[in-house]
Amino acid sequence: MIVSRSVDLHGCKVAEAIRKFVDFYNGCVRGGYAGRIEVIHGYGSTSGAGMIKHALRGFLEANPEKVDHFIAGEGIGNPGVTIVYAKRLLATPMGGQRSESSVGSRKGRTKRGATFEGSKGRY
Known about the structure:
By secondary structure, the protein is an alpha+beta fold.
């Protein structure tokens, strides 16, 4: 039996989705949970871009010292989820601004006007 916790990011803008994920993840770490965290973000059927998925995975890739590992849902037959295994607390993104280490793998602008680009871009 796989023990898992999950957070659903549907309906969030990119910046708020990352903040919601970080808050949930950090709550798990603070509570001593070291199991599987299922992040439900969808695969981008509404916008076609999968902006949350790409931003989340970019953020995870930029924080390898904090995350034990993660599995892209495509590898388990569901591109709308990412499976994360926690290791240490993540820094909370501030006010929708991207830090140099927390971005998605795509370039563009959110509906609220925040920019994001590449793995070394801004959030």
